[in-house]
Amino acid sequence: MKAKKKRNWRKWEPYLLLAPGLLLIVLLMGYPLLYSVRLSFLNYNLLTPNDIHFNGLENYQKLFSNPDLWLIVKNSIIWVVVVVFFQFLLGFTLAMLLNSQFRGKGLYQSVAFLPWAVSGFLIGLTFKWLFSQHNGVINFALQSLGLIDAPVSWLGSETFSMIVPIVGMIWYGVPFFGIMILAALQSIPVDVIESAKIDGASATQTFFKVMIPYVRPTITVTLLLRVIWVFNSPDIIYITTAGGPANTSNILPLYVFNQAYYSMDFGYGAAAGILMMEVLLIYAMLYLKLTSYEKAGDF
């Protein structure tokens, strides 16, 4: 009898140990998510607090009938694709350079990774000043070189407004890829590299046949996380352009924020937030499927 009770305890022991963590996740993530879903079906505008009621799919109909929605979605895709592509490309190059030995490597490494320690708010202010039409360094430099005749309105132009936050976000995120990929490169066993060289593999063959398979799991995870983080990071856009002019630099997270906290329409903002969550969920599922994540570490 005692042995049977002991076996039953062993059966439930893992779930009991996980229960505090699962409860915390449910409280911090599950409840807000369910509450947001509920809000998306309500007319919940704090400017009219006495008129809160269930309105069905009205918020979603209003969202998808908004002519600016598809411009905002397009901006979100451009924002993520351009930023993550250049962050990865420059971060990989930085990791490869730092993976070799040279004098002053420690100092250079600390300086190269410095942007990751700067807040997005400060980066936004810095790039807003750099690209200022009247007293910005970029316009001054371009005029000094004779490349432009008059100062360019980088932040107020529908053509160039997206460039400023994109450049700032690229600069901010390069160290993340650099740190992660450098750690993966340094974990490659030295004897594996030496064996490839002894077997007559060229530098290109060693890179693609030996190094890339080792760092592939890291690349897969960092790309997944970075796309989600960049998509959900409107702070630099908010500081530099605030999504303007005419939504030409607006993205979904910033749009949700503005609807909820400027228009005070929490029902409509919740509907836009649910759309944003669904976009990220579909992306994550497709990404994991296409990259064969469960086989990412196989050689």
Description:
This protein has a two-stranded antiparallel sheet with strand order 1-2. Helix 2 (58-64) packs across helix 12 (266-290), helix 5 (120-130) packs across helix 7 (163-186) and helix 7 (163-186) crosses helix 9. With 299 residues, the chain is mostly helical. It has a single domain, classed as MetI-like (MetI-like fold). The protein starts with a helix and ends in a 9-residue tail after the last helix. The chain is built from 12 helices and 2 strands. The protein is 69% helix and 1% strand. It is flat.
Based on the model shown, name its key terms.
single chain, 299 residues, mainly alpha, MetI-like fold, two-stranded antiparallel sheet, 12 helices, 2 strands, 1% strand, flat, membrane, transmembrane, cell membrane
Structural class: mainly alpha
Percentage of residues in DSSP E strands: under 5%
CATH superfamily annotation:
MetI-like
CATH class: Mainly Alpha
Q: What's the Cα radius of gyration?
A: 25 Å
Largest sheet descriptor: 2 strands, antiparallel
Shape: flat
Number of DSSP strands?
Answer: 2
Total of domains: 1
Order of helices and strands: HEEHHHHHHHHHHH
User: Which strand order do you get reading across the main beta sheet?
Assistant: 1-2
How far is it from the N-terminal to the C-terminal residue, by CA? 49 Å
CATH architecture term: Orthogonal Bundle
Quaternary form: single chain
**Whole-number mean pLDDT:** 84
Percentage of residues in helical conformation: 55-70%
The CATH topology, please?
MetI-like fold
Number of helices: 12
| Stretches with pLDDT under 50, minimum 5 residues | none
